[in-house]
Amino acid sequence: METGSFRTALELLATLDPDVTSALAVSLEVAAISTVLAALLGCPLGFLVATRDFRGRWLAEVALRTATALPTVVVGLVTYALLSRSGPLGMLGLLYTRTAMVLGETILVTPLIAALTMAVVSGADPRIEETALTLGASRTRAALTVLAEMKRGLMAALATGFGRLISELGIALMVGGNIRGVTRTMTTAIALETAKGDFALAFALGCLLLAVALVVNAAVAAWSLMVPGARPC
Amino acid sequence: MLRSEDTAENAPAYSLRGVRVRFGSRLVLDVPVLDIPRSRVTALVGPNGAGKTTLLRVLAFLLAPAEGVVSFQGEEVRGESRELGRLRRRVTLVGQAPLLFRSSVRANVAYGLRARGRRDPEQVERALAAVGMSAAADRPAWRLSGGEAQRVAIARALALDPDVLLLDEPTASIDRHHVGLVESLIARLGSGETTVVFATHSAEQAYRLAHNIVSLSEGQLAPVPLVNVLRGETACEGGARYFLAGGLRIEVANGWRPTAIALDPEDILVSRLPIDSSARNCFPGSVARVEEDDRGVILTIDCSGTALLARITRRSYREMELNLGTQVFVTFKSSAVHVLSEV
């Protein structure tokens, strides 16, 4: 039985079964867009918390770190409440769409990317920002220079964020609704197929999920080695 | 404060009044009054930890003093963020251990121009040529030696053609051959419109290159230029007190038992024959080095192994027919000896 499932799983992968490829595409799309959005929000946030002196800075730090541990079902619940017909954003009719998933996943992973950016920037040489400023850079350009100099660390942060998203289940299920071909991701499909007892498809998707994680991390690691001035961390 | 344009034109590059910088509770810089002249070379001299770097960071508008007023070219600096951004485009600091961005040497030098929205490859090449780094333009900046990195950092500042160039120990890690290059660069900039302020622990370098010397010691302005600093001990003989340093026995009018003294090169007379005068100190020596600046000639005179700097006019230099190795006498009054520290 088990071996049979595994063989079927390989066949499904080899023949590019539409259920498999569609789940892969949805997973990649949602995770990639959410990672980009979370980076656009989280990197500046993390940079500011790391470099600016303001009242209650430690509070912001603690809040960010706490938010990295947000349970996905809580984020799913909040996003659901926002988007459900009676919720504040209900009129947009976004529930059970990929947009809803992107919203939830972005909420989930923004604090993680912000906290990791904060750690990366805190470890940056303070001379980077000062050098940029004394060469006449604006504060924004100086900040971008610091982020550019620390791009290996930031890329690792983004890869971590992407990894969390590609394997995320709670939000995808709660606000995506697991609609076949539309919002069904690799993880929601695995959950469903396992519940149905169709282990072959679940195995196939599981393997694919691991492969995606492997490829992304290998690519980031390879890229890190090629970055100018790469030093072992 | 209201000032007319006219006054602002003649105002010094910087005026500092009651400036104090604290790190935590420690007072690291305390400058009651300091003016730094425009279009001149000013040297900040003092030992490590004297506050030179802190003062340079204040002048670069990177560090806001806890107290006091800094005026730039006659205008009081309020510390508002947009104003600081504007000022930082006219003033640039080259740090002692400068940081280069992880890109090519050329991209590093072009950074400040790009920050101003300018692309000027020729300006970049000129700046690189000025520090002798043209050949390294395409090299990755992180592969440079400390001295090369320092020269690139200087080029990066030169490319901006700033009103004020601040240099922190600009020759500290540079090899001997290129020290002369950087020094002549400083002299050339200072003879033009640029205001140059550089920190150095070498009083001799300061004296050679600068029009104006600011001595710092433990965060305070020191009263005398720290040139011709001699360390030694005091001996009393027949009612007179002598300071013994190297092979010299210097009669001192001031102080009780000095352990370190300084002599202003302006106070040292140089002659071919011993001078019979009221001056209490007269030593034989030989000319070890001759340098010129826009105020005259600086002689380094080796007196029994102790090097003393003396400043004379170009005319005296010609008329005395001095050359390397010429035997001379140095003469100075016991009251010209500044006591730096005593027991």
Gist of the model:
The complex is a heterodimer of chains A (233) and B (343). With 233 residues, chain A is mainly α. Chain A is 76% helix and 0% strand.
Description of the molecule:
The complex is a heterodimer of chains A (233) and B (343). Chain A has 233 residues and is mostly helical. In chain A, 76% of the residues lie in helices and 0% in strands. Chain A has eleven helices and no strands. Chain A has helices at residues 2-14, 18-51, 57-67, 72-83, 98-122, 126-134, 139-149, 151-166, 170-176, 186-196, 199-226. The relative contact order of chain A is 0.16. The model of chain A has no long low-confidence stretch (mean pLDDT 91). With 343 residues, chain B is an alpha+beta fold. In chain B, the strands form five sheets. Chain B has a six-stranded mixed sheet, sandwiched between helices. In chain B, strands 16-20-17-18-19 form a five-stranded antiparallel sheet. In chain B, strands 2-1-4-5 form a four-stranded antiparallel sheet, covered by helices on one side. In chain B, a hairpin with a 2-residue loop joins strand 4 (67-72) and strand 5. In chain B, helix 4 (105-115) packs parallel to helix 6 and helix 5 packs across helix 6. Classes of the chains: A mainly alpha (233), B alpha+beta (343). The interface between A and B is medium-sized, with 20 and 26 residues.
